[in-house]
Each structure stands twice: as structure tokens, then as C-alpha cells.
Design goal:
It contains 14 helices and 16 strands. The protein is α/β, with parallel strands linked by helices and about 425 residues long.
């Protein structure tokens, strides 16, 4: 073993000197002050004399606040393997001056980028929103501040997400909405390393942001996720989560909670209506304290919602609102009875109201908003509305009054007869 001391070490007036020895196989490393800072930091993170890869060397250099140590290439012992010089216990040569301890650097915080720019995450109030159904119960849970995970399920377009957003708007509580897809993984949820101002930093994900702010995390369309959602198991227990990439434990602040919305109950879509939904792990689902089933609103409530939308868009027609609600209610009844394969959601009615505001014509608005359905369903829905509202007629070029469309005469407001 060969020991080399750097004569350029900084000294106090009383000539304090710190001596370090380096053990290497057939090589000698001269430790300058900057090199010692890096080696000390790397030893604290990965152990004295550890074998490091380039990523670990880069992380240690960031922690030490020094440039990437290219001199570590001289310690290479294999492919992407570099032997960290070993440091002996330092020997101090001092006369009467007491050594000043260097400040302790937080290893983790040097790796973690500051969280997203602080901003107000309280949802904006939705003009015309009507509280109904499970709104009051969910408001009590959120207002309590307790950690009580909730799973909300229901057909598309019945106001699940809007309800969660608006109760937070009313309470003035922050909400982070995270839309789940089949591609969502641990890196998206908890965070990962990103390039920040030329440096590699760990950027916390939305789950960590919600935990540290003590706000509500909304997992929207949760049933579109994969088994990678299992990374949230400890989070759903309210105990916190360990960030493996930076060796840091995150404890949620008071007020943190998790709410999930889905079109299914996590068992997949048997009828194929919600393609892409997956069967979620039973252990994942079990961690939600309650499941709330969200139906479509009653006719009375839905009319208030439609009137509210009309006021918001500046075109109020109560008769039109009544007819739309009646029309949608008949279609839904037929859907539940298995008579049709499609349904008119509350969201679809809102689309029609907005189109009516733009085009100033009821049938134009309805025809454009049901054009997404297949031809037979589209014609049946349009013809049904003409039975509900005798003052309107469908446009001839829409295809409702084709001579070979005999089934149109069999549709009335008491039910939708069809020959699908």
C-alpha cells in the first residue's frame, strides 16, 4: 500500500492537517481537498470502499456539490464498476486550535428537487352545480380530516369527478387530480429522477405532493390502471411510503386522503362498454374503506342541473330542459331493461345545452350530439325526441324519416321499441 499526502491541503494558522490514506490495488490516488469531499460523501451514501457505477458516482458528486469526478476512471475494476478509495480514520495533528466540524449535509434533500411551484390547488367553483346524491356524505368525510379512502363507481357522465371537485371547492380544500391509464407506473405516481437545471434530481410525483400538502388525491378512472397501482398499497393504509430511489420516508400530513373514481367496481367490464378497464387486485380494492355507487340523478334533480347549465351558457328554456330530461329518462329505462345498448348521460345533456346556445336550434343541437352513436341508435333517439317534443321535427337529411325505417313508428315516450 502506498500513501501519498497532498501538500496543498488548506491549513489553519496553527497548521492543522487532516491525513487520509487510500488503499488501492496497484494504483495510487492523490486525494486533493475536492477529491476528499467526493470520497467522503460517497462513503457516507454507499459505504467506505464500495464498488460504484456511473449513476451512483454522479449522485454522490451532486450530493457533495462537486463536478463529476472523471478521475474515478482510474479506479475501474470492471464494466461500469469503480472502486471507491477507502478512507482510514483521520489522524489530527493539532497544537492548541480546536477543529471546526464541517456542517452535516442532508444526503436525501440534496438529491430531491424542490416540489412543484407552490400554487393554489383548490378547484374552481362550477357555475350551476347542483349538490345531490352522495354529495353530503362525501362532504362529511372530507370535512372530518380523517384518512378514509373512498371508491366511487358509476356509469360514465353522471358527475362522479365533478362532485368530488365541487365539494372541495366548497370546503376550500386542495385537490390533486391524477388521471390513471394502463401506462401509469410507480415513477408517475411517486416520482423519479429528472433533469432539472442541468442536474439529475428526484422530482416527487403527485402522490407525494398530495401527502406533503395534506390535501386529497383523486385517482380518476382508477380501473384503467394495471398491477403497477400496487405501489400505492402503503399510501392507502395511511402510513406513509418509503421512496426507494432516495431512501426517504414520507409521512402524510393531517388532512391527506385518497378518493378513486371508476366506471366499474374494479372487476372489469363484462359488456365491453368500458373497453380498457382492468380487473384490479383484490388487496388494492380492500384498502378502500367504502364504495359509493353513483347513479344518474332523478328527473327533478337533473332538470335543476340542466337549468343551471342553461343559465351558465346564457340560453334558458325551461320547456326544452323538461323535454330533454324526459327523453333521457325514457332512454335510460329502456337501457336498464336491455332494450338499447346506449344511454344518454347527464354530461351528454349538458353538451346538447351548450350546442343549443351556439346554434339556437333544438334539433340541430340534439342531432349533432347523438351523432356519436351507431346509425340505428342515432335514428331511434332522434325520433323519440320528436315524440317527446311535438314542436320540433328532425331534419330530413338526418335520415330519421327514411321510407324503409318502419321501426320509427313503433317508438313512444313510454319505452323504446327497437329491432336491434
Amino acid at each position: 500500500m502506498k500513501i501519498v499526502l497532498d501538500n496543498t491541503l488548506p491549513m489553519c494558522d496553527n497548521k492543522i492537517m487532516m491525513m487520509k490514506t487510500v488503499k488501492e490495488n496497484d494504483m495510487t490516488i492523490k486525494l486533493t481537498p475536492r477529491k476528499k469531499i467526493f470520497v467522503t460523501a460517497a462513503a457516507e451514501m454507499f459505504g467506505n470502499g464500495s464498488v460504484l457505477n456511473k449513476d451512483q458516482i454522479r449522485i454522490a458528486a451532486d450530493k457533495a456539490g462537486v463536478p463529476y469526478p472523471s478521475w474515478m476512471s482510474r479506479t475501474k475494476i470492471g464494466y461500469n464498476k469503480h472502486k471507491l478509495p477507502e478512507l482510514d480514520v483521520p489522524a489530527f495533528i493539532a497544537n492548541t486550535v480546536t477543529a471546526v466540524e464541517a456542517p452535516v449535509v442532508d444526503t436525501v434533500m440534496n438529491l430531491v428537487a424542490s416540489n412543484m411551484e407552490k400554487q393554489n390547488l383548490v378547484p374552481a367553483s362550477f357555475e350551476g352545480f347542483v349538490p345531490w346524491g352522495n354529495y353530503a356524505n362525501l362532504k362529511k368525510i372530507v370535512k372530518s380530516g380523517m384518512f378514509y379512502p373512498i371508491f366511487i363507481t358509476g356509469l360514465s357522465g353522471n358527475g362522479k369527478t365533478l362532485m368530488v371537485e365541487q365539494l372541495h371547492a366548497e370546503l376550500g380544500k386542495e385537490l390533486i387530480r391524477l388521471n390513471i391509464t394502463i401506462e401509469t407506473d410507480e415513477d408517475d405516481l411517486l416520482g423519479g429522477f429528472r433533469l432539472v437545471n442541468g442536474e439529475t434530481k428526484f422530482v416527487p410525483g403527485p402522490v407525494i405532493e398530495a401527502m406533503e400538502r395534506g390535501c386529497t388525491l383523486l385517482l380518476d378512472e382508477c380501473d384503467l390502471g394495471s398491477n403497477k397501482m400496487m405501489a400505492l398499497q402503503p399510501v392507502l393504509e395511511g402510513k406513509g411510503v418509503f421512496l426507494k430511489k432516495v431512501n426517504k420516508w414520507i409521512t402524510p400530513k393531517d388532512g391527506f386522503n385518497v378518493i378513486a373514481t371508476a366506471n366499474t367496481k374494479g372487476k372489469g367490464s363484462e359488456d365491453g362498454r368500458f373497453i380498457g378497464t382492468n380487473i384490479l387486485n383484490e388487496a388494492f380494492l380492500e384498502r378502500f374503506a367504502i364504495t359509493v355507487e353513483q347513479p344518474y340523478p332523478t328527473a327533478a334533480v337533473e332538470k335543476k342541473i340542466i337549468i343551471g347549465s342553461m343559465k351558465k351558457y346564457g340560453e334558458v328554456d325551461e320547456t326544452f330542459a323538461t323535454n330533454l330530461v324526459t327523453w333521457a329518462e325514457v332512454i335510460r329505462k329502456t337501457f336498464y331493461d336491455g332494450g338499447v345498448d346506449e344511454i344518454i348521460s347527464t354530461r351528454r345533456l349538458d353538451h346538447i345545452v351548450k350546442a343549443f346556445t351556439i346554434f339556437k336550434d333544438k334539433m340541430t343541437a340534439i342531432e349533432m350530439c347523438v351523432a356519436r352513436f351507431d346509425e340505428d341508435t342515432k335514428i331511434s333517439f332522434i325520433d323519440l325526441y320528436t315524440k317527446v317534443d311535438a314542436d320540433v321535427k328532425a331534419s330530413k337529411d338526418f335520415g330519421v324519416f327514411k321510407e324503409d325505417s318502419q321501426e320509427n313508428e313503433e317508438i313512444d315516450v313510454d319505452g323504446v321499441e327497437n329491432n336491434y
